[in-house]
């Protein structure tokens, strides 16, 4: 006797009164889509009522999931942190006979479904969700640790007498943009500094120089800049050079994530370094359902050079 027909995304869409794409966005928790909570709940309830199981997961239940863990990293999140995170994740998975597959770029729901349907991975991890504390199994102490690491920039500048600080931001969207700004503002408030200002340092070089020039003209009291990452810090240093100015005498600049290029410029870039290997190992154990006891992440630290 033939088995019952498998419930599909189209069935869930019809039952909840939305498009198939909307169902896919909701069930894959796509962070780049704005869907009302009421609609999300209606879709999830329809999926529960119909007994919907994603194709890849259904096959994994039949055949046993593969020994592959997939990590999605959005563009713009590559750096020392992500490299050390991947190293720890890869090493820990290998120790338990699993293989890591890294996908770069935005993991759209349909492409994630293709991965599930093709290899039935043991788990799919989203690096951006890990950084913002939304990844299932993310440790609460890591969220506190991220806040502390983000605050290092502002505290380093405050310790050197700066009371008016600005944050230099990228000209592209980032999953971390909102949380980094919020943490910087909280740190400024806690330390009793002047309210944080922010500005964008865009590409290309001439546009970045114009942006820094305009910001300095409008905010003459700002003496230090905490950059979103080392790339933005380097753009800021380049702009200062093109304007005939220098760090730290005219404007102190501190980066974040300690990419190798910061040590090669003049003045060498002061930055924040976070070794995330233990974070990667913790994520691997969480994905495999293993005990995470005995692993303690190292706190971030300032790499003090010449720019701040």
What is the strand and helix layout of this fold?
Blueprint: H1 9-16, H2 20-27, H3 37-50, H4 55-63, E1 68-73, H5 80-95, E2 99-104, H6 109-119, E3 123-126, H7 127-131, H8 140-159, E4 165-169, H9 177-191, E5 197-200, H10 205-218, E6 224-227, H11 230-242, E7 252-254, E8 271-273, H12 277-288, E9 301-303
Parallel strand pairs: 1-2, 1-3, 4-5, 4-6, 6-7
Antiparallel strand pairs: 8-9
Helix pairs in contact: 1-2, 1-3, 4-6, 5-12, 8-9, 10-11
Q: What does this entry look like structurally?
A:
The protein is α/β, with parallel strands linked by helices and 308 residues long. Among the domains are: 1-52, 434 Repressor (Amino-terminal Domain); 141-273, Response regulator (Rossmann fold). Helices cover 47% and strands 12% of the residues. The strands form 3 sheets. The protein has a 4-stranded parallel sheet, with helices on both faces. Strand 4 (165-169), helix 9 (177-191) and strand 5 (197-200) form a beta-alpha-beta unit. The protein starts with 8 loop residues before the first helix and ends in a 5-residue tail after the last strand. The relative contact order is 0.12.
The H-and-E topology, N to C, reads as: HHHHEHEHEHHEHEHEHEEHE
Q: Let me know the CATH homologous superfamily of the domain at 141-273.
A: Response regulator
Largest sheet: 4 strands, parallel
Compute the average pLDDT.
85
CATH architecture label of the domain at 141-273:
3-Layer(aba) Sandwich
In what order do the strands lie side by side in the largest sheet?
5-4-6-7
Low-confidence segments: 59-64, 134-142
Q: What is the helical fraction, as a range of percent?
A: 40-55%
N-C termini distance: 74 Å
Secondary-structure-derived class: alpha/beta
Q: What percentage of the residues does DSSP assign to strands (E)?
A: 5-15%
User: What's the CATH class of the domain at 141-273, please?
Assistant: Alpha Beta
CATH fold topology of the domain at 141-273: Rossmann fold
Number of strands: 9
